[in-house]
Write a structure and sequence with these properties.
heterodimer; A: about 675 residues; mainly alpha; two-stranded antiparallel sheet; two-stranded antiparallel ribbon; 6 strands; about 5% strand; globular; B: about 500 residues; 2 strands
């Protein structure tokens, strides 16, 4: 049996068993089934990936079943494995397996654990279907499937109104992107008469320069197709304009944020652009748009990241920003660099999220960094894991030593290749460098606020609650309390006044199920770049045609001036210095600065007012229009003049007829006379 | 099948059952109705199993000329087969849904339902145009009674509205039929489908049929009878109304308007497109603000049916097959959604959405199934509705990208109103003590929803079972329409392509 079948369908089976059978087999069995399924998939994925690295594997397609045959439009269930898929396979299965394991600890006391694990496995299945798709429609299946899983997991604590709202928002905003994706598929079918990805990619170059009408305007064929598909990618990957759902998605349990909203699902858009790279290569205008949107998102999200207080939101905006890097790398034609950053980012961002989860876990569900501080000594393992993650995301490494953390290899490659590409790549380079400065600042800000300084725990309501009430009486009506699963607060003596800011609270390091994933991902954050840089960046053989590989550009990347190569390191140090200055050396500085910046700070802090704007121009008008169409349209016009009007006319008419048949001879005579006059008139004229 | 008149038997079984029910008490009447519908389901399976895919266009034919110009002619093609299957599949579920909810005049109620089944199968199987007309219009009567006798508080208004609207087009359609039979010299539908009516006559004939089918569909703006009818009808009445009766309009288009008047259909394509675009956007927005569960789903039905009409009038294979799949998928899913509403209505006796909330806690199994049907309603891939909507929209895209764009916005609006509904019913806190005390699904309710859930997934994952029988018939229809089909708006003009040397590493990609 082909191992890819097991990789893809083991998580599905596990999800069904745990989801539908969880009630009967119990939590532990459900957790074992799903986690085992994922570790199995992971164990089978690495050999596939390594054989592609070694260069002794070939692209293959495993047919599964017929899906739809409708005239020329046919698409089947099939699993495609090539280099691009293999990269995604290891990312998805590794992070997913580790997140499953992590959730044993994190969700330990949740009453709905089997449902949670079933959703995680279901998500993994859908994501695997997405990356193994051999046609656009199966990709869309996976695309919507991960959307469903994301919706279910964001809203996992379904009693919480904010979680429900965030879940619906994620689904609906993604559907806006899917509108573009669907129209893109339709258009692609119209032009190429197929939905098979390899056939489309083969035919794409010949379509360059052709033109087509779409919605009344004349377009370059490949440009409009790629732009429509890219709208889908923007939705799923939370790019500027369609990003509003991602920060809200942090309402979900933290393991979900790590798996779905950092490492895998949100990178699906990048994957799609890379998968269809030969199409985008035939559409230079679309590529320019990809670069611009990517660079804009990269900068925009980083600015917001510097102002947020919620630890998960900082990382969420960071994710959004890093996705921007991937997109502008793809936009300048360096798909390998984009995929490389996707690969390393999956490890260090999952690490940061799971680390944040461990901090939140230790701090009794407090997510506000203003109430952290001094945790370095209390939870040292988590601290070091977060440290490696931070070193990776800020891109610490030295070019001449040829050594650095994962992000150094991938982010620097993106900056260098943008510089080398010229054109609007140069602009993207400068934006990217500035965003790297902000990245360094907000990442170190997070570290300093959390792990350095004096404890500020006493001000936190969550901590006070933990200290005063212990954890023996979980609040049934507060879903937030359920996230406290696994807390061991037996040491929490109700003695708040210690005078040291701790409020008598003792944070605890997480159980081993949570620490092992942190350890493994730390290895990824440290070494993933070093080990795989050559294959991802410099080897056309490795990619083997699964993406459009521009050898000249990748060669030029290595020839950029030294100042370009060191620019990222310099801004990283500046960011570190700035964060140190603001949060350790002179803690009053941030307040002064925000006061001076006033309106600008508020604009950034309020996330550029996107939510307010969308609420004003989309959500409210939709409800208003609905009411108008209903009350004024259906009831006020159609019913009033339609059926009710007819009924009224009949009613009045019959009343009139009744009156006419009064029995009075005079009225009959009058009518007879009128009839006679009419008849004579008719005959005479 | 060797001459066994299976279609007549499928008409006779529920008819006999209906007559029997009239004379029986509640308990035996329920039993008789259930047995009769199950026998018909079994016969339907036999019918499907014996349908020869790729064989003759019309199968299981029966022909008895009763008098000149009127024959008892039955026969089905793949399209009719699928719709008959939908009817016989939903019927036992309707009887099961009424098992406890209906307590007065049970015998008459069951008789009305069984008569309904006779008429629905008759509509799809009739090969004589007047026989079709009789079945088509007679279907009004049992539905009128079901709403008017066993309906909610405002049932009389709803029943009249339903009757008035649907009667509107009937007269015109009958006149058109008389004219056609006179011109073509036959009442046999298969001949009429190949008869070339003069182009100028087609216009009037098409409009006459359109008046009837648009109401049945229902298309905006003649849809306002549907929300009222649904709200007032008992659960099973809503299921059969949404599940099968709404498909009569689509069936009418695909059986009469398109093949008999291809030129007029092409000429009036803009009208259908326009009304459908309005329907998708307007009724979806109206669904968003509903406070009554049944009304919300009723309005969503109008939006979904608009996808059917654009698919039919896309004039290509994808559009036609997509329209058929939406009809089948919507028949299952909206039926299931009305059952879901009925299940909680039976417990709390209100359709007010705000009276529920947090049902995931006390009714977890219900919440899972309701979620599945919600996702199917929003067209999630892997469920029945996706296949249909995707194909129908892909079809209309080839005809006109504007129409495709406007209709595809339905996937956003659909997600908004369905998830908003689900959230208010199943998620959140348990605000109402009585809603929180409701027990989870009973065995009977599992038996109602389970088969539909299986069918929804089957149709989504392996729709080939349903597409295969219809393929040849759709091809015939597509060929018939080919001459009249309008040009698409794409006008693809080839360029020179990328120079060979710029094709970096695209070679060897596969």
């Amino acid at each position: 049996m082909n191992s890819i079948l097991i990789i893809v369908f083991a998580p599905l089976l596990a999800a069904i068993v745990a989801g539908l059978g969880g009630k009967w087999i119990g939590h532990t069995a459900a957790k074992i089934v799903t986690t085992a399924g994922l570790f199995l998939a992971c164990a089978l994925s690495w050999p596939i990936f390594l054989s592609f690295i070694a260069g002794n594997a070939e692209a293959s397609v495993t047919p599964v079943m017929t899906w739809v045959q409708s005239g020329a439009m046919t698409f089947d269930w099939a699993l495609r494995v090539d280099t691009l898929t293999a990269v995604m396979l290891v990312v998805i299965t590794t992070v997913s397996a580790l997140v499953h394991l992590y959730s044993w600890g994190y969700m330990d006391e949740d009453p709905d654990q089997s449902r949670f694990f079933a959703y995680l496995s279901l998500f993994t299945f859908a994501m695997l279907m997405l990356v193994t798709a051999n046609n656009l429609v199966q990709m869309f299946f996976g695309w919507e499937g991960v959307g469903l899983a994301s919706y279910l997991l964001i809203g996992f604590w379904y009693k919480k109104p904010s979680a429900n709202a965030a879940a619906i928002k994620a689904f609906v905003v993604n559907r806006v992107g899917d509108l573009g994706f669907m129209l893109g598929i339709f258009g692609t079918f119209l032009v190429f008469q197929t939905t098979s990805i390899p056939e489309i990619l083969d035919a794409a170059p010949a379509m360059a320069g052709s033109s087509i009408t779409f919605m009344g305007a004349r377009w370059d064929t490949m440009t409009i197709l790629c732009l429509l598909l890219f709208v889908g990618a923007m939705g799923k990957s939370a790019q500027l304009g369609l990003h509003t759902w991602l920060p809200d998605a942090m309402e979900g349990p933290t393991p979900v944020s790590a798996l779905i909203h950092a490492a895998t699902m949100v990178t699906a858009g990048v994957f799609m652009v890379c998968r269809l790279s030969p199409m985008f290569e035939a559409a230079p205008v679309a590529l320019a748009v990809v670069t611009t949107v990517g660079a804009a998102t990269c900068l925009f999200a980083a600015t917001i990241g510097t102002t947020q207080w919620d630890i998960k939101r900082v990382i969420a905006y960071s994710t959004c920003s890093q996705l921007g890097y991937m997109f502008f790398a793809a936009g300048v034609g360096a798909y390998g660099a984009a995929m490389f950053h996707l690969f390393t980012h999956a490890f260090f961002k999952a690490l940061l999220f799971l680390g944040a989860g461990s901090v939140i876990h230790a701090m009794h569900h407090e997510q506000d960094m203003r109430y952290y501080g001094g945790l370095r000594k209390e939870i040292p393992f988590t601290f070091w894991a977060m440290m490696f993650g931070t070193l990776a995301i800020t891109g610490v490494g030295i070019y001449h030593l040829g050594a650095g953390f994962a992000g150094f290899w991938s982010k620097d490659a993106i900056l260098e290749v943008s510089y080398a590409a010229g054109g609007n790549g140069t602009g993207a380079f400068w934006v990217g460098v500035f965003a790297a400065l902000l990245t360094s600042f907000y990442s170190w800000r997070l570290m300093f606020l959390t792990f350095w300084g004096k404890p500020r725990w006493i001000e936190s309501e969550h901590i006070q609650h933990a200290v005063h009430h212990g954890h023996d009486e979980p609040d049934e009506h507060n879903p937030a309390a359920q996230e406290d699963a696994g807390h061991d607060v037996t040491h929490a003596v109700p003695n708040p006044d210690h005078g040291d800011g701790t409020g008598g609270y003792h944070p605890h390091e997480s159980p081993w199920t949570m620490l092992v994933p942190l350890g493994v991902l730390s290895l990824g954050a440290i070494f993933a770049g070093q080990f795989f840089a050559e294959s991802f960046l410099d080897s056309a053989e490795f990619w083997d045609g699964s993406i459009a590989y521009n050898a000249e550009l990748m060669h030029a990347m290595h020839e950029v001036p030294y100042w370009v190569k060191y620019s990222a390191l310099v801004v990283m140090l500046l960011g570190l210095f700035g964060a140190w200055l603001a949060y350790i050396r002179r803690p009053d500085l941030p307040r002064q600065t925000t006061e001076q910046l006033g309106p600008i700070y508020n604009f950034v802090f309020n996330k550029w007012y996107f939510d307010e704007l969308y609420n004003l121009i989309f959500v409210k008008p939709a409800f208003w229009l609905g009411r108008v169409f209903w009350k004024k349209g259906d009831e006020g016009t159609i019913d009033r003049f339609g059926p009710n009007g007819v009924a009224w006319v009949v009613d009045r008419g019959s009343g009139f007829a009744k009156n006419v048949q009064s029995g009075y001879l005079t009225s009959y005579a009058l009518i007879m006379l009128l009839g006679l006059v009419a008849a004579i008139t008719w005959v005479l004229f | 099948m060797g001459g066994f008149p299976i279609l007549s038997v499928m008409l006779a079984v529920p008819l006999v059952g209906a007559i029997a029910c009239l004379f029986l008490d509640a308990k035996p009447a329920r039993m008789v109705a259930l047995v009769a519908t199950l026998i018909n389901l079994a016969l339907g399976v036999v019918l499907w199993a014996n349908y020869d895919i790729g064989g003759a266009q019309w199968q299981f034919t029966e022909y008895n000329e009763l008098f000149d110009g009127f024959a008892y002619a039955l026969g089905i093609d793949g399209i009719a087969l699928m719709l008959i299957m939908l009817s016989v599949f939903l019927m036992p579920i309707c009887i099961g849904a009424s098992w406890e909810a209906i307590t007065k005049r049970v015998g008459e109620y069951m008789a009305a339902f069984l008569l309904m089944e006779v008429l629905m199968i008759g509509v799809f199987a009739a090969q004589d145009i007047f026989l079709f007309y009789i079945f088509f219009e007679a279907g009004l009567i049992p539905m009128y009674l079901i709403i008017g006798v066993w309906g909610g508080q405002n049932r009389i208004y709803a029943a009249y509205k339903f009757f008035l609207y649907t009667l509107l087009g009937s007269v015109l359609m009958l006149i058109a039929m008389l004219w056609m039979v006179n011109a073509a010299g036959t009442t046999y539908i298969p001949y009429l489908m190949e008869y070339d009516f003069p182009v100028e006559a087609q216009t009037w004939l098409w409009l006459a049929f359109f008046a009837s089918f648009a109401v049945k569909m229902p298309m905006w703006p003649v849809h306002t009878w549907l929300p009222d009818a649904h709200v007032q009808a008992p659960t099973a009445g809503s299921v059969i109304l949404a599940g099968v009766l709404l498909k009569l309009g689509g069936y009418g288009f695909i059986r009469f308007s398109l093949p008999m008047f291809p030129d007029a259909s092409a000429d009036f394509g803009w009208l259908v497109w326009g009304l459908s675009m309005v329907a998708v956007v307007v009724t979806s927005l109206i669904a968003l603000v509903q406070a009554d569960m049944k009304k919300l789903i009723a309005y969503s039905s109008v939006a979904h049916m608009a996808i059917v009409t654009v698919g039919l009038f896309a004039f290509n294979v994808q559009g036609l097959e997509g329209a058929m799949m939406v009809m089948l998928g919507h028949g299952l899913v909206s039926g299931a959604l009305f059952l879901c509403v009925g299940i909680i209505y039976d417990r709390l006796h209100t359709r007010e959405i705000s009276r529920y909330g947090g049902l995931s806690i006390n009714m977890p199994a219900y919440a899972v199934l309701f979620m599945l049907f919600t996702m199917a309603a929003v067209g999630l891939p892997g469920t029945s509705n996706f296949v249909g909507e995707f194909l129908a929209l892909a079809g209309i895209y080839q005809a006109n990208s504007w129409v495709a764009f406007v209709c595809t916005t339905g996937i956003i609006l659909g997600a908004a109103y369905m998830l908003y509904l689900y959230r208010r019913i199943c998620f959140g806190e348990q605000k109402n003590a009585d809603a929180a005390a409701m027990p989870d699904l009973t065995v009977r309710e599992y038996l109602l929803l389970g088969p539909i859930a299986a069918a929804v997934l089957w149709m989504g994952v392996y729709p080939e079972s349903f597409l295969a029988p219809m393929r040849a018939d759709i091809e015939v229809l597509d060929a018939r329409l080919a001459a009249a089909a309008p040009e698409g708006d794409a006008n693809l003009a080839m360029g020179e392509g990328l120079p060979a040397e710029e094709e970096h590493a695209e070679g060897g990609a596969h």
